[in-house]
Amino acid sequence: MAKFFTGITVLVATLSQLLVSNATSRTANIQLYALPNxxxxxxxxxxxxxxxxNTSVAVSMNxxxxxxxxxxxxxxxxxx
Length: 80
Hints:
The chain is of the alpha+beta class. It has one helix spanning 2-22; strands at 28-33, 42-46, 60-65, 68-73. The protein has one domain (2-73). It has a four-stranded antiparallel beta sheet with strand order 2-1-3-4, covered by helices on one side.
């Protein structure tokens, strides 16, 4: 699990560096959504995600830059 969090941290840090180096006017918003029964809850952060989260309840993380976006999907413990 620690390797997973390290991987996400490296991914976010890398994306942040790319954003800063390519265009300082761009911003990165990271949103973590809970399962549909808690659909109203989400977290925002600019350039870094500074909270711990449980990947077993995460559905997806959307990393977007202006009109471009990349979707990273987390599957719960019942999925292979």
